[in-house]
Specification:
globular; mainly alpha; 22 helices
Length: 462
Amino acid sequence: MKTVANTLLLIGLLWIVGTRILVPGANIQPDSPRYVAAGLNIYEHGVLSGEGYKVDKAPVPGLYAGGVFTALEIALAASISTDTYRDLVCVAMVSVDENCGQGLWALKGIYYFETVVFHLCVFVVGYLFFGRNLLGGWMTAVISLTFYDTFLYASSPLSEQGYLMLGGLFMASWAHAYERSDKLWPWALSGGLGGLLVLVKPAWLLLPLGLSVLPIIAFFIRRDDRLHVLKASLVFFVAFVLAVTPLIVRNALVLETFSMSQTSYLVSSLSHRFAFNLMSWKEWLIGWIYYLPLSGAQRMFGADALVPLGWDAGSYYEYGRDVLDKAANDGRTDLEARGYLLSHFVFEMPLKFVAVTALLLWRGIFVGHIVGMLAVPCVVTVMVFAESNYWRKWVFIFLPPFFMAGVNAALSVSLYRYNLAMIIPYCLAMVWVALTTLNFLISRRNQHGFLATAKTFLPATR
């Protein structure tokens, strides 16, 4: 019976993901052409480059504004299907406003596989978190299907689906490392997968910095096991570095740089982000309401008050993109431009930088929009009410994606899609709250018959 139920649930998951991704049409985003051009340059010319794609001319080796993993995905899709290749060429060489990329079936097949892997990783994390309980695992996976960010960009040649898959694999290995902390190989696996995430989102290069707090705490708490703590930390870090070493070596030999992405891309990202430091304190306060999904801020403050906080003409984003980026690059190298931005918008206004980073973190954590609004209070509930066993486990799982959300808020405009890894701890928190509430309601009633039987199937939350 258990096998039949698991099989049906798996078939249902495969079918739901398929109906969302394996459908006609494409959603070509403004960033899509540069990803596609990088992928086609690899497929057609065997060269990783930031230059545009040309059928009859190989580009100069370089880096592009994004992770190499996405370019490899697109190159693979082009090699699988001639029709997909033609669609990708259209996206790379024609305006995004044209009717390009309406097929992309090979790329959608890759995205379908990656999305399924992500949801199965959510199942694994839930299964481990709730004491190796299958029901807990499936409940967590089902909740993950309600986050529309898992398929919102599945018709777009972007990095999101690859980010989902590698993020899910990392989080599953990270949860397993907690379960088997006495072994070294889970730490090696999670470190390697964390390193692979850098090939999708180069900002994840900062992950070991955020996680360094864990071995420091463990070193003082687990005094009898300090040697193992040091070994596990070293194994994680070495595996992380080894995962990115091939690209580092390639860049050092070919480009004489250790950068993981196009250096001008970081300057642009910082320009877009630091422009928000110019907001007034009144706008900062309004932002805490405006950046809530379905906040009704327009009725409260009027449309004109919200324009600077948005994306259109007159916004800080537009100023950063069209004015500040040009000012930073005017007569400066990329390194000098970064120094200019950091000097004027971080070191000269540290309080405003920290305050705006907190605000943009607030904006970026509502992954899933309305579902995110439900998830955030559940996170607070777990933090306040979970008993020590589940609290420690949940904080351990929550730390990596939350730290990276903070990095994204500090260094970029903090979009939902930058923080997709937050979906997994969100699902855990929502399931924990639901199970705790259900257990409480059952305990308040006469526990005989159906209710008593039902309770035996529920995962423990204590």
